[in-house]
Amino acid sequence: MEKKIISKKANLPIYVIFSIIITVAGILLVFILIGSNANLGKKVYCRTLYNNEKSTDEFCEEYLSLKTETMLSKSSTLEVFSDNREKGIINLSEDNYYKDSIGFILPSNAKLREAKLRISLTNQTINRFADGNSKEIIIVPPGSDFNAVYAATLQGLPLNAKLLNPKLEISGEEFPSKADIAFVIDTSRSMSNEWQTVCNNLNYIKSYLLKLGLDTNITIYSLGAGIASQDCVDVTLSKDNLTTIRTLVEFDGNSNHKSGSHFEVNHYDDYEECWAVGISYIARNHPWRFQDDVKRIIIPVSDSDPTGGGPVRNNNKGIVQGPGKFTGSEWPAVRQAIADCTLADRWIYILPIEGDEPASNALPVNNEGFGVGSIPCEDTCANISEWMSLMINETTGRDDIQVESFKNKTSIFDAIIKIITTPFPENITVYLDNQEIWELMDEQLNKSTSPKAIDTDEFFTILNNMPCKTNQCNITITSSEGTIILDKLRIKFIQDPDILNLNIGGNDVDVDSLALNSPSIERDIFTQVENALLECYQEERECKIQINIHSENQGIIELGVNIEYSYYSLEEDLLENILDCWRDSSYGKEENNFICNEFIVNQNYIFNYPLTEELITGLIKQRNFCHIIENSRDASGNLFDCGEQDNLLISQDIYNTDNILIEYDAENKQIIVS
Predict the structure, then answer these.
(1) Are strands 216-223 and 235-237 parallel, antiparallel or unpaired?
(2) Is this structure's pTM higher than 0.85?
(3) Stretch among 219-223, 251-255, 289-293, 345-349 having the lowest mean pLDDT
C-alpha cells in the first residue's frame, strides 16, 4: 500500500486563512462591543458591520441619517489694537528715549488679504492751566496799587510744536464768594455789653450767611482774658502772642500829679484793648483759606484806641478821662495792620465796629471809652473813628461801607455782605508774559457782556514765538475791583517727531518724515505682517505683533490699522455646536440620548495645537457662559471653576482629525464630544 505524503507548503494557506478568519472575527467582535457605547468607535461600527445586520440600532440609524456640517473659513477685518481701541497712541518723549510701541493681535493661522497702516500727527490740546485747574477764579482786590494781579499760568509748549488754534474765555461775575471771618474783641471792663451782643447774635450771623448760600468760617478772638470776655470765645490772644507784633507796656496803676489844675499824664498801652495789634497777629497767623473764591475779613470791636488805654489823670476823685493825648504808638500800629492785610496774595478786609461805654454807678461816664460811639464824637473820640475809617478805606476801597456801631445789627450784616460780594469788574487788560493780549475799557464785564473770547493775533503770536515755548507763561490782569473768571482754555498744536525707524514684528516699514502741512500718510504693510505671522510661535492660538517706533524728537503719533484676513476657528465653531446641542437638550432636561451633529474639519485647517476640554472651557468662561453650560472639572478631576456641574465631556484631545461627533448623554446630563 502506497503511503500518501501531504506537503507542509500546501497546508500553509489553510493556516493563514484560518488566522485571518480568527482576526476578522475578533475585529468584528470588538466592533460589536464598541457598537454598544456612545464614542468614536460607534461611528466605525455604524459605517461597517451595522449595514450587514438585520437588527436595528437606534444610534446607528440616527447617526447614518445625520446631516453633517463642514467647517468653513471666516473673513474678518482687524481695526483695533491690543487695548481694543481703534486709535493707537504712540508717545515719543525724552523720558522713554523717543521710543514707544503698541501691538495688535491676529489668529496664528490667519491668511492675509490686505494690510494697511495709517500714521498721523495727532492734534494735542491743552485744556487746563499749569496748576491743573480747568477754570481760574480771580478776585481783584480794591486799591489802585494792587489791581494788577497774577491770574494763571500756562504750561510750556514743546519746541517743535505748531500752534493751531488758541482760545480762552473771560467772564465777569458779581461773585458771592466764600468767606473766613475773624472777630477780634476788646476784653476790658467797659466791653461787657458789646461781648454780650456779639455772643447772642453769633448764631444769627451764621444762619443769616448760610441762608444766602455763603460758605463761611467764623472765629471769635479775645484780646486777653479780661473781665468782659464770655463763653463764645474760640481763641484767646495772650500778651505773649501780641508782643510778637509790638511791645506793649501795661499801666501799673501809678500816676504822678501836681498841685493846681494841671495834672501829669501817664501814657500806657494795654494788650486787652490793642485791637490794631490784634489785627496784625490774626492777619499773619489765622488759618485762612487761601483760595481764589474766599474773602478774608477781620472785624475788630472796641471802644478804645488802636493800641489800648490812653491818657488818664488823677484828680483825687478817681481816674477820669484826660486830654486827647496818646502814646504815639497808634499810628504805627494802624499802618502795620493795614500793611499786614493788603498783601497781594493775602488780601484781608477790615470792618471795625465801634463800642460805647454805658453809664453806671460803678463806672463814670467815658471813663476809658473816649466817648467812642457817642454823638457828637469829639476830640480823642474823633481820632479813633478816623483810624477805623482809614482801615476800611485802605482795605475795602468802597465809599458805601463805613464804621458801624455794634448796636446796628442790620447795618453790620449789610456791610459784611457788601465786602463778600464783589462788584462787576471794569477797565480790564489781560497780559501774557507782560505783553497785552486783550482789553476791555470803559465797559463793565457783567453777565450780559460775558463771556468774551480771547483769540486775538497777539495771543497766537506770543504762544508761538515767546518763552511759552518750553517755559511756562504767566497771565496777569489789571482791573477795577471784581471777580474775573478765565475758562474754556483750548490750545491746540501738533508735533512732528521726525521718525527714524518704524518696524512691525521686527520688519522695517519705509516711512518718510511726516510734515506739518501733510500730517497723515498710509503704508501697505502686507509683507511685514505676513512675515511676522510666520515668525510667531505656531502652537499658540493668537499671534501678538508689535509696532515699534523710534524718533529723533518728541511728539505724539496716532496709528490706525486695517487688516483683512481669513482664518479657521475650530474651537469657536466647536463651542457654537456644543451650545446648540445643549439648547436642544433643553439645558440637560431631555431624558433620551440623541446625536446633535457631526462636524467635518476642513482639510486646509492646520492643527497647531490640540483642542482640549480645558481650552473649550476657557472659551466658555471668557464669554461668561458658565451660567448656561457648566463644567466644573474634566474626566481626570482637573478643576475648571465654571459652575458646579459637569455638562461637557471631550472624550480625548482633538488633534489631526477629520470629523468630530457631538451628542447628548441623557443619563449623565452631558454633551459628549468625540
Answers:
(1) parallel
(2) no
(3) 251-255
